[in-house]
Amino acid sequence: MAEPHLIRIVDVTNRDGVQTSRLGLAKLEKTIINVLLNEMGVYRSEFGFPFTAHEQHYLNANLQLKAKGLLDPIALSGWCTARLKDVEQSFEFVPGLKHICISISTSHQMIHGKFEGKVDRKGVIRMMEEAVKACYDHGAEWVGVNAEDASRTEMNELIEYAARAKEIGGKSIRYCDTLGYHDPFTVYERCRKLAETVGLPIELHCHDDLGMAVAVSTAGAVGAVDGGVDAYINTTVNGMGERAGNADLISTILALRYASGFAERKLLDPRVKLSKAWAIAKYGAYAFGVPIPINQPGVGANAFAHESGIHADGALKDSRNYELYDYEELGRGEPETVETGRLITVGEYSGIKGFRNVYGKLKIEFKNEAEATRILELVRYANVHTQKPLTQHELLFVANYPDEARQIMTVTPP
Asked: Which of 230, 261, 285 is the endpoint of a domain?
């Protein structure tokens, strides 16, 4: 009997979330995001742009961390345009890359509006074919194919594009709702038809311009499953991303686990650990410098707050009166310690005594003074690198993986 089709999470915080205008993440912060995604049971992280020079040290170091077991079993995939020059550069900069998605626009609007007559629809398919073949020639083991602006692409043309991608070895088709244009009903029907016709796993990549990224992502993924293929949903931590952002990681998981039409079907990848939600949302907010909205599903300050008499009375009698799920499921409820007296932190000007004090609280011991001094120097650089006081996750990572930390923080202009 065949295994039932599942919906898996592919987080794109480190590729699309970091494209949020006026914001971004340091390479160390991107690494910690990958660590937390792995702990959460996320299937794959799209961890960056391998054809971009300033990403190469970070990407190579993260692949080393995967080989060491820190980033395992999560898959790490790069994102690349369907241009041969960029594919070649990707594998020159990151020779150990095994998973990669190539992307090109497929709608009439973008073919005409972006390529301005230099490339037609047949040219788009030809570029995709050449890029996929080149990725495999360079040692890739898995190549996904993206259709940018799939939601505004004529259905017959999208089917032709996806079918050709499958013929040449594409492992999935990414259905990009690039402008947040879709509604849940339309995307369900289109993804189901695409799945039934082509038989290729479908990734949903949805933006939140109409406030429906999670609804459209989940509906499209269910359409793919109902059409007989596995589905993947692209998410970002706290919904970060260009313009109005992407489908929020935690909201997507909550929807798949608790929404009335989804809960009994158990479509969500069972590896996902919702108990890590609070930790990753807090870290993402700190790293991006964007507070979690007070009304954010699951992790907002008011997500489990009740004030009006009717609600408070009902919640105290039985939490299910006004709560779909328990706050403990998201890793919430533990008291947080806030220092109100003397506080020693570490930064780019820290000395050895203060440094030892901070690491002592984390129960990290150093073999000798030389090792402590070496880690202190790395912590100083990490503070310069992030321009923020280091979190516990960051301090532990630097102490436990100093060689990779050094590599991650190395950016050498050409």
From this structure: 285
